């Protein structure tokens, strides 16, 4: 299958290793991955901050770039949620754009959703010999309703010691621009999340969204917790040769 990667702006600019891991993983599963270089941002931050005209420009750009893509895979729960839940609303009033959004959105998948639901896989041949806990992002739980899809993929990884995270359904406090607009509340929520992570004794905390992991990982680094934040794609892309 030919798959188009929407890497997202945060991965492209700050976490390129996540995009690279997504490509390695999908190619190992037998798929041809293409990267369309004109892609930029899904518009999530603009929508959250009320900049509708700027967001609409990005919707038009996304549709134009991926209009003919058979499948678009996104290693981000928040960006996928934005595309799924906001694009049609923004396109209201433009019949042609709304029609194009309605045609494209059903072909856009978050990474773990694509692997489990579209490919019907749980064991992707990964190996990761670490104690790991999984943070369910708000967009994973409430936006996309992925349920246990990411955890099923992690549970099938050879060598992993997967431990449950207490209060896993609670938000980490990032919330895009929420962390900027409400820093005190955000920090309090982050503190609760870090405490729960450290209680697990995990070496690694993972999730399907690098924005949450950036927030959590930054906090853990500042208190020198000794816990790394690693995107789900990077764990699923790992093999024994990475540790030999």
Walk me through this protein's architecture.
- The protein has 13 helices and 8 strands.
- It has 2 domains: 2-118, Rossmann fold (3-Layer(aba) Sandwich), CATH 3.40.50; 131-243, Rossmann fold.
- The protein is 51% helix and 12% strand.
- Helix 12 links the parallel strand 7 and strand 8 (228-231).
- The longest helix has 17 residues, at 183-199.
- The protein is globular.
- The chain is of the alpha/beta class and 244 residues long.
**Bulk shape:** globular
Count of spatially separate domains? 2
Number of strands: 8
Report the helical percentage: 40-55%
Number of helices: 13
Query: Whole-number average pLDDT?
Result: 96
The CATH class of the largest domain, by name, is Alpha Beta
Q: Give the spatial strand order of the biggest sheet.
A: 2-1-3-4
Main beta-sheet strand count, sense and barrel state? 4 strands, parallel
The arrangement of helices and strands along the chain is EHHEHHEHHEHEHHEHHEHEH
Structural class: alpha/beta
Describe this protein with a few key phrases.
244 residues, Rossmann fold, alpha/beta, 2 domains
Can I get a quick summary?
By secondary structure, the protein is α/β, with parallel strands linked by helices.
Outline the secondary-structure elements.
Elements: E1 2-5, H1 9-13, H2 16-28, E2 32-35, H3 44-48, H4 52-66, E3 72-74, H5 77-91, H6 95-104, E4 108-110, H7 111-118, E5 131-134, H8 138-143, H9 149-155, E6 161-163, H10 178-181, H11 183-199, E7 204-207, H12 210-222, E8 228-231, H13 232-237
Parallel strand pairs: 1-2, 1-3, 3-4, 5-6, 5-7, 7-8
């Amino acid at each position: 299958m030919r798959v188009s990667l929407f890497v997202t702006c945060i991965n492209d600019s700050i976490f390129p290793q996540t995009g690279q891991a997504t490509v390695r993983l999908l190619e190992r599963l037998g798929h041809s991955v293409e990267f369309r270089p004109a892609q930029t941002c899904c518009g999530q931050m603009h929508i959250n901050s009320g900049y509708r005209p700027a967001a609409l420009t990005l919707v038009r750009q996304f549709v134009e770039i991926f209009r003919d893509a058979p499948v678009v895979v996104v290693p981000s729960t928040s960006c996928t949620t934005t595309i799924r839940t906001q694009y049609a609303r923004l396109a209201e009033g433009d019949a042609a754009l709304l029609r194009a959004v309605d045609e494209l959105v059903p072909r856009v998948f978050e990474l773990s959703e694509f692997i489990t639901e579209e490919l019907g896989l749980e064991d992707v041949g990964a190996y990761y010999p670490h104690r790991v806990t999984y943070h369910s992002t708000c967009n994973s739980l409430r936006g996309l309703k992925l349920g246990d899809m990411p955890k099923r993929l992690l549970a099938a990884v050879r060598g992993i010691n997967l431990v449950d995270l207490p209060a896993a359904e609670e938000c980490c406090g990032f919330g895009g621009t929420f962390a900027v607009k409400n820093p005190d509340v955000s920090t309090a929520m982050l503190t609760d999340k870090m405490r729960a992570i450290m209680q697990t004794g995990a070496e690694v905390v993972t999730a399907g969204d690098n924005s949450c992991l950036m927030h959590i990982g930054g906090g853990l680094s500042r208190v020198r917790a000794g816990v790394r934040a690693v995107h789900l794609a990077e764990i699923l892309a790992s093999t024994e040769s990475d540790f030999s």
